[in-house]
């Protein structure tokens, strides 16, 4: 039956709007510093043999992934390649990506039944000057215009149907659907997929299990940073090094944990390529930074079209690179446009990457998290409720004292307002919020800290007895590192003060569950019920999990000869996967580490609250 929309007139108004949509830069204070020129290749390509953007079949293969919308015909001039959903308060943000601009402001038609998409919402487009631009890349494999349409004032826990109409050469999407978040206080059980450090290589088992979880009704996915590993585009041009887990040379590949080595690693090294720190594709998926983003996002369409996909920043989102290999081959390429050459280590600066590949630029455009709507900042820090739980995304990369990515104020000497080129580093980023009086050593000076305190203080535990926080960086691990002290000093007292139940992280590429820990890593023995059951949420301790095992080109982390500390309850350095977090009711939640190879669970943990009082 054909349903005639009452708003038909309004819809045609949108369709007829003659105003070409103008893509606007990021709405916040996004700022890429260009005081010193970029002097590298027009398009850095992580392949010495095949220095073309599209590939000619002689170097590393260029992978392809299907776009979100299959074009209606073969002479395609524009296309919707990625669609992803995220929560905003009382609604959903529909994000979609095209290589070229649209005729009008982005639009979504929607309604409560697939045959009745009578409501229409319009949004805004953002863009950045990506390297290379989409005019150089295949139309169905490239994103440069990022459209965000907010559907708000929706009913909670309700399925809505929507369609993205055709515009400037794109094909209209099929009728798709999503389910809104449950209202805070809704007491029904639900499950969340939690994953960290994914990328592409080694993540195929995780991907399969994630898709399975979606078909079983997982409510949403929460990805704690290190998303596409786009910055590993250059792993195929870095010579092997003994401290790097992967050495691909086509005949005798090393991967942590030893054999079996996936068959793809037996692909012969293309003639002229160096044995390298990458995989058979050279980079994670592609040898171009931006194409890695495009292809990873397209790969993930099968999830992001169906469930909200919430993200937070990790170090791999910061810029086009974060370290160099022997002889600083990358530095020579980026700074001097010299292939297979060398350069002094000190020359790897903030200005080494093309301007569009610095300061979380791709990350800021390719996602739309509810920072603005929840008092936070952009895709960096924000919170949201779902049923019995309050979820808090923390930025563990920038915007706290001694953050792993440095703000310029920390590079500069006290007599400078900005650092010189040589004083910067390739991953310098942020701050994305304010630092009062530039007092970068003080927790309280940071907008993020002020927000976190206020956000935790305002949680109504009678509605959301569970509070779960995540950032990319762990506070503790048997793999001890100095950033852990900095993350603790910034956030641990607040999380304890407000009785946060669990702190999730990634960054280290393994699964590690810690005993319940109080301030400075004291084991709260009274909160250990047994090996697989902890009491939580009483402010005396927090349950910490490092969930960094989704799989990525860097493969598993290994402890080597270092000891397993007594804070570690479970350590798995071998299986890829993700975790399912189920909130059964106000006093019981269960955490299950799903192994990517389909052989079941690598760990199971029950969290119990001694008491919780729900409002009716
Ligand atoms: C990064 O962007 C933010 C605005 O979003 C700006 O305040 C900051 O100075 C930039 N940092 C660097 C290192 O470019
Ligand atoms: C429409 O798409 C074409 C490419 O097919 C592009 O050149 C043009 O800029 C787009 N129009 C707008 C308004 O962005
Ligand atoms: C959706 O459309 C209906 C009528 O077609 C209207 O009553 C309702 O307010 C609209 N909802 C929103 C959130 O705009
Ligand atoms: C293919 O799509 C283009 C752009 O939308 C359109 O101009 C053209 O007429 C279409 N061709 C066919 C055969 O439908
Ligand atoms: C997409 O996800 C569905 C479950 O939601 C799954 O059945 C299907 O196999 C997935 N497709 C691919 C290509 O993985
Ligand atoms: C790959 O490594 C093995 C073991 O180190 C070595 O014997 C072999 O020659 C290497 N192959 C190439 C192409 O470098
Ligand atoms: C700033 O101080 C440094 C030492 O901290 C000194 O080397 C440099 O010359 C000073 N620069 C200016 C412009 O005064
Ligand atoms: C935790 O360690 C910090 C120094 O890192 C110290 O100042 C503080 O007193 C310690 N707190 C507790 C409760 O042990
Ligand atoms: C608890 O775990 C420890 C170490 O992992 C193990 O030795 C012990 O047998 C376990 N206890 C029970 C009751 O499973
Ligand atoms: C139990 O709940 C009450 C009321 O919400 C609260 O005051 C008390 O601190 C809670 N006790 C524990 C151990 O969490
Ligand atoms: C764990 O080890 C630390 C030293 O690393 C020690 O201070 C602490 O007492 C130990 N805790 C337990 C419960 O054994
Ligand atoms: C909460 O859920 C758990 C797991 O399903 C169950 O064992 C427990 O009885 C439930 N508690 C309440 C108060 O319903």
UniProtKB/TrEMBL annotation:
Catalytic activity, EC: 3.1.3.2
GO MF terms, alphabetically ordered: acid phosphatase activity; metal ion binding
Which chemical reaction does it catalyze?
Answer: a phosphate monoester + H2O = an alcohol + phosphate
Which CDD domains does the UniProt record give?
A: MPP_PAPs
Q: Which residues form the signal peptide?
A: 1-23
Looking up Gene3D superfamilies in the UniProt record yields:
3.60.21.10, Purple acid phosphatase-like, N-terminal (2.60.40.380)
Return the similarity comment.
Belongs to the metallophosphoesterase superfamily. Purple acid phosphatase family.
Every Calcineurin-like phosphoesterase domain range: 278-511
**Classification lineage:** Eukaryota, Fungi, Dikarya, Ascomycota, Pezizomycotina
Q: Which residues form the Purple acid phosphatase C-terminal domain?
A: 542-599
Q: Which residues cross the membrane?
A: none
Q: Which domain of life is it from?
A: Eukaryota
Query: What residue stretches are annotated with the Purple acid phosphatase N-terminal domain?
Result: 88-180
Tell me the keywords, alphabetical order.
Glycoprotein, Hydrolase, Signal
Protein name, per record: Purple acid phosphatase
Among the Pfam families in the record, one is Metallophos
């Amino acid at each position: 039956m054909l349903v005639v929309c009452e708003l038909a007139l309004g819809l045609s108004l949108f369709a007829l709007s003659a105003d070409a949509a103008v893509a606007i830069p990021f709405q916040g204070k996004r700022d890429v510093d260009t005081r010193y020129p970029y002097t590298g290749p027009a398009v850095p390509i992580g392949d010495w043999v095949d220095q073309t953007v599209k590939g000619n079949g002689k170097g590393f293969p260029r992978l392809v992934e299907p776009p979100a919308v299959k074009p209606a015909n073969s002479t395609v001039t524009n296309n919707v390649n990625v669609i992803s959903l995220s929560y905003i308060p009382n609604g959903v943000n529909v994000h979609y990506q095209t290589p070229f601009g649209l005729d009008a402001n982005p639009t979504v038609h929607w309604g409560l039944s697939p045959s009745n998409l009578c409501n229409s919402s319009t949004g805004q487009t953002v863009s950045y000057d990506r390297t290379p631009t989409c005019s150089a890349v295949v139309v169905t494999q490239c994103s440069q215009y990022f459209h965000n349409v907010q559907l708000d004032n929706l009913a909670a826990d309700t399925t809505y149907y929507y369609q993205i109409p055709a515009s400037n050469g794109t094909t209209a999407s099929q009728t798709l659907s999503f389910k809104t978040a449950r209202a805070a206080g809704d007491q029904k059980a639900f499950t969340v997929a939690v994953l960290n450090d994914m990328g592409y290589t080694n993540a195929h088992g995780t991907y399969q299990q994630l898709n399975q979880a979606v078909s079983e009704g997982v409510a949403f996915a929460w990805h704690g940073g290190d998303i596409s590993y786009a910055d590993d585009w250059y792993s195929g041009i870095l010579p092997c090094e003994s401290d790097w887990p992967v050495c691909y040379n086509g005949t005798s590949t090393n991967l942590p944990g030893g054999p079996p080595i996936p068959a793809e690693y037996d692909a012969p090294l293309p003639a002229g390529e160096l044995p390298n720190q990458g995989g058979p594709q050279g980079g994670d998926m592609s040898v171009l930074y931006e194409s890695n983003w495009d292809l990873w996002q397209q790969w993930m369409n099968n999830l992001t079209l169906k469930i909200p996909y919430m993200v937070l920043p990790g170090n791999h989102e910061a810029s086009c690179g974060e370290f160099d290999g022997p002889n600083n081959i990358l530095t020579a390429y980026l700074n001097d446009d010299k292939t297979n050459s060398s350069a002094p280590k000190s020359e790897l600066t903030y200005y080494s990457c093309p301007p569009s590949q610095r300061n979380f630029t791709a990350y800021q455009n390719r996602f739309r998290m509810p920072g603005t709507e929840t008092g936070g900042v952009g895709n960096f820090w924000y919170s949201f409720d779902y049923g019995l739980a309050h979820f808090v995304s923390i930025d563990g990369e920038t915007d706290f004292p001694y953050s792993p990515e440095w703000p310029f104020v920390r590079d500069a000497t006290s007599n400078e307002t900005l650092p010189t080129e040589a004083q910067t580093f390739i991953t310098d980023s942020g701050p994305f919020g304010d630092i009062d009086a530039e007092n970068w050593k003080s927790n309280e000076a940071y907008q993020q800290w002020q927000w976190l305190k206020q956000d935790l203080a305002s949680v109504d535990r009678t509605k959301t007895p569970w509070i779960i926080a995540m950032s990319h960086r762990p506070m503790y691990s048997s793999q001890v590192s100095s950033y852990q002290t900095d993350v603790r000093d910034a956030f641990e007292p607040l999380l304890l003060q407000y009785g946060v139940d669990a702190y999730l992280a990634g960054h280290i590429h393994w699964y590690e569950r810690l005993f319940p820990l109080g301030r400075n890593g004291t084991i709260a023995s009274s909160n250990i019920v047994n090996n697989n059951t902890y009491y939580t949420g009483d402010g005396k301790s927090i349950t910490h999990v490092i969930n960094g095992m989704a799989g990525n080109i860097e493969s598993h982390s290994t402890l080597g000869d270092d000891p397993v500390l007594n804070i570690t309850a479970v350590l798995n350095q071998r299986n890829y996967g993700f975790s399912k977090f189920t909130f059964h009711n106000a006093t019981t939640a269960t955490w299950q580490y799903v192994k990517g190879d389909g052989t079941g669970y690598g760990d199971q943990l029950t969290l119990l609250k001694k008491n919780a009082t729900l409002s009716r």
